[in-house]
Write a structure and sequence with these properties.
About 30% of the residues lie in helices and about 25% in strands. By secondary structure, it is of the alpha/beta class. Strands 7-6-5-8-9-10 form a six-stranded mixed β-sheet, sandwiched between helices.
């Protein structure tokens, strides 16, 4: 519309200014409209804390002091080595040192687990390797979909075969290509397994050791490993595969070594002399992990001295049951501050 007309400089610039202002008005109006429709974000109110003792609301790791609450996982078996389920709080007494403690929490829930398998690949496993692989797969079949697991193999040194995963097929595929050879660094493998568990997602953690002999090639000593597992909140189970005779001194000491390490944690060591029993025993261990009682108490001794506190669980079986065997952790380290 302005083409063909001549304007003086002042008028010309006035026209340009008018056009620029008018052309900017719709954009300003749109921005203003958008500002009206965008509501300021209101921060949600923090959730209200449930009523009751805060110590009983914590998701505390087993046998770990937190807000003066200690949780102790317990497995009960009968004289036939069968699991005993269905007991309740009144069937248990719990002591720290000589002092009986008041049980504050009690459960037998099947919680998700972080599982690690420590698998012997030393040369002596050659004739047993197929059954041992089968045992690993049977153990993982007892897992829940939420569980996570990893695997460490060892011969002259431990190696991480698989990182934490929920895929049994992934571990099975890698395990097929392992070849038994070399000596046995069992204690070093336990050290690596306990260290790996620091990356675990769940409070409930367990290791399964499958080995056919004692240690003969580790840098770490049995005393160092015993101290380490006492501090770790990890249940350790073991399957020892032994011949009817022990050809070497380390093999003769193998069952004692595995028993000592596992019993410190509240787990168990199973000794078998027939590789065909491997799968059944590994399945039994997997089921046992799912049928534990967890007892919680608030220690009467509140001194934060970092010292080892002995814990003992006693059971009063219902009338008609035979004497029962208790498998529970032997203690915990008090907080130091």
């Amino acid at each position: 519309m302005l083409c063909g007309k001549r304007f003086s400089a002042p008028v010309f610039f006035l026209v340009l200014l008018t056009v620029a202002v008018c052309s900017s008005l719709p954009l300003a109006a749109q921005n203003s409209t958008e500002d009206v429709h965008i509501q300021p974000r209101v921060a949600p109110e923090p959730p209200k804390e449930p009523e009751g003792d805060p110590a009983l609301r914590t998701h505390t790791k087993p046998v770990k002091v937190d807000v003066n609450l200690v949780l102790v996982p317990v497995t009960i078996t009968d004289p036939m080595n069968r699991l005993v389920t269905g007991l309740d709080r009144d069937n248990f007494n719990l002591f720290e040192g000589r002092d009986q403690q008041v049980i504050k929490t009690f459960s037998s829930e099947d919680a998700p687990v972080s599982l690690g398998v420590i698998f012997d690949m030393s040369g002596s496993m050659g004739s047993k390797i197929e059954r041992a692989r089968e045992a690993v797969m049977e153990f993982f079949k007892t897992a829940n979909p939420q569980d996570e697991f990893f695997m460490i193999t060892f011969a002259e040194k431990p190696e991480e075969l698989s990182d934490f995963t929920s895929s049994v097929d992934d571990i099975q595929g890698k395990l097929l290509y392992t070849i038994p050879k070399g000596r046995t660094a069992l204690l070093d493998a336990i050290y690596l397994g306990v260290t790996k568990m620091r990356q675990a997602k769940y409070p409930k953690k367990a290791l399964l050791i499958i080995s056919d002999g004692g240690d003969n090639h580790s840098r770490y000593t049995e005393g160092e490993i015993r101290s380490m597992v006492k501090e770790a909140d990890i249940l350790i189970y073991a399957i020892g595969i032994y011949d009817h005779y022990f050809p070497t001194e380390e093999e003769r000491l193998g069952p004692t070594l595995l028993s000592d390490v596992t019993e410190l944690t509240g787990g168990r060591a199973f000794t078998i002399d027939n590789p065909n029993d491997l799968a059944d025993v590994s399945t039994k261990i997997g089921i046992e992990l799912r049928n534990q009682y967890v007892i919680g108490y608030r220690p009467k001794n509140l001194t934060r001295d970092g010292k080892w506190r002995k814990v003992k669980v006693k059971v009063n079986p219902p009338q008609g049951l035979p004497p029962l065997t208790i498998h529970a952790r032997t203690g915990y380290y008090a907080p130091s501050q």
